[in-house]
Amino acid sequence: MASSAHTRPLSDVEIRVKALESLLLEKGLIDQAAVDALIDTYEHKVGPRNGARVVARAWVDPAYKQRLLTDGTTAIAELGYSGIQGEDMVVVENTPEVHNVLVCTLCSCYPWPTLGLPPVWYKSAPYRSRVVSDPRGVLREFGTELAPETEVRVWDSTSEVRFMVLPERPAGTEGMSEEALAALVTRDAMIGVTKLKA
Ligand code: FE
pTM of the entire structure? Predict the structure, then answer.
């Protein structure tokens, strides 16, 4: 299932969904704003909040973090997140020495259960090509300046694997609760294009 989702053109079902959406909009039976709001919910609220809880747990629980980095799929499922586009998860840890950033150079593969729907820029051809050829330049455009000695690793989704970045825990967050920590975690930091601040 996941393998075909990576490279294939739109499936019959997807074409039908698009056609149906257009028709419903045209007939005034659904409201574009409502559809956008629904997509926004998955893109910004439901999805990334799940990933943020995973990150916060890893920050406060070293044993969980170890499990997460060893077997991402199982550790993420411990918190109840699994499903389509999350069947084979690999979590990569950002440190002062190594900065990880995610892409799908072929299309838009993305870990839906933890991050929701991919942002438009993630699906864009310029991001997909440039993050590979010039990751530091792309990161700079996101306001992320890396030290010259920091190694940058770009992870390209394969037909099966979906990656997620475990961002660095920001300084000054030592006394914070897991819930408060989760609130600091952003989608973009879990893609690896930004760093987190307290
Ligand atoms: Fe893809």
Answer: 0.81
DSSP collapsed to 3 states, 45-114: HHHHHHHHHHHHHHHHCHHHHHHHHHCHHHHHHHCCCCCCCCCCEEEEECCCCEEEEEECCCCCCCCHHH
Where do the domains of the chain lie? 12-44, 47-191
Q: Is 3.90.330.10 the CATH classification of the domain at 47-191?
A: yes
How many angstroms is it from 152 CA to the middle of ligand 1? 21
Q: How far is the CA of 158 from the centre of ligand 1 (A)?
A: 7
> Which residue among 22, 107, 124, 133 is the active-site one?
107
Contact in structure between 87 and 2 (CB atoms under 8 Å): yes
Residues with CB under 5 A from ligand 1 (ion): 6, 104, 106-107, 109
Q: Return the structure tokens found at 60.
A: 């406060």
pLDDT in tens, the chain (198 residues): 444 556 667 777 777 888 888 888 888 888 888 877 777 776 666 778 999 999 999 999 999 999 999 999 999 999 999 988 889 999 999 999 999 999 999 988 999 899 988 888 999 999 999 999 999 999 999 999 999 999 999 999 988 899 999 999 999 999 999 999 999 999 999 999 999 988
Kindly state the tokens that stand for 9: 């053109």
